Amino acid sequence: MKSARFIGSKKVAIEDVPAPTPGKGEVLLEVDYCGLCGSERPQYEEGYHQHQGHELVGTVIANGPGANARIGAKAAVYLTRFCGKCEMCQQGLTTLCTTITSKENIGWAWPGGFAEQVVAPEENLMYLEPGVDAKMGVLLLDTLGTPFHGLRAVNAAEAKAAFVAGCGAVGLGVICVLKSLGIPKVYASDRPGFRLNEAEKFGAIPIDITKEDPVAVLDAIGGVDVAVEAAGIPPTLQTCIRVVKGNGRVLALGEQPETFELTVDLTSRLKDLSIHRTWYFPLSEWKENVKLASSGFFKQTDRLVTHVFPLEKMQEAADVFYSGQAVKVLVTPKAD
Ligand SMILES: [Zn+2]
Ligand SMILES: [Zn+2]
Question: For residue range 225-283, what is the model confidence (pLDDT) as tens digits?
Fold first, then answer.
């Protein structure tokens, strides 16, 4: 089958690889769509030993021994492997599984969705609902599922004003969820350009950081209830801590460097606040999210998929995505 692999120096190779065979408890899917992710940028630059892709929806075409998935059904694939038995898994908190490490993620340790077919453990399938197409299924993973989990953790639904630092795919996903929740005032900061314009189109109040200081803008309105760090750099986390009101909640969603320093000024120290870190989303939230999607809860999601390329044009897809002139870029091995 055809697959697309990052081979280093921002080059993509379309390769012929053996089609995977589902093992015990595993399922074979034909890939419908797979999204590129910011987390794959290092591999885009440096290469990877196999094809990746972890934001995917596929159609079930075969069951391995002992698996009983619905043939012909469309399902999104859950990123992380989990044991299903430990204390965390029993509560549905699969990202916190204490038995299986994140090294076994699909699209990383396992071959992923930048291919015609993919194998996944049956328990990693998340079925779509009527009215939720395959593209929307992809969005319900990292783009909306990850932000929504974090926003639930900081009780964002009750915020009157929120701030989102960074308008990449994750930041825009956060803004989409906040506006879908009906939060009246959502401020969003970034450099000027495509992504900040997109934030504004979603109904956010843009703060161009080359012209305005988010701290000054948000001090003028008395601070925000919830501030979301979605850029993955320490200075924006610092800003988030600074701009929340007393009893405010900071959500650290961006992937920060492994070690970093924060400068916390007196204004930040003289108030109660909480900082929440969340990563991906527990499998238990899928059913609620897909039902919400089916009911039309998520607003303007068509804005989130800016490009779809055939798998053969994965090079173009990656170049566009990592240029920053796109929100979510999908590839498909089928005719779109
Ligand atoms: Zn991702
Ligand atoms: Zn577990």
Answer: 999 999 999 999 999 999 999 999 999 999 999 999 999 999 999 999 999 999 999 99
- Report the C-alpha gap between 281 and 142 in whole angstroms: 8
Closest ligand to the CA of 139 = 1
What is the 286 CA–ligand 2 centroid distance (Å)? 17
User: Model's pTM, two decimal places?
Assistant: 0.96
Counting ligands in written order, which one lies closest to the CA of residue 82?
2
For residue 186, what are the contacts with CB-CB under 8 A and spacing of at least 6?
161, 162, 163, 164, 175, 178, 179, 202, 203, 204, 205
Q: Which ligand is nearest to the CA of 56?
A: 1
**Ligand 1 centre distance from Cα of residue 229 (Å):** 16
Q: Which CATH superfamily is domain 145-277 in?
A: NAD(P)-binding Rossmann-like Domain (3.40.50.720)
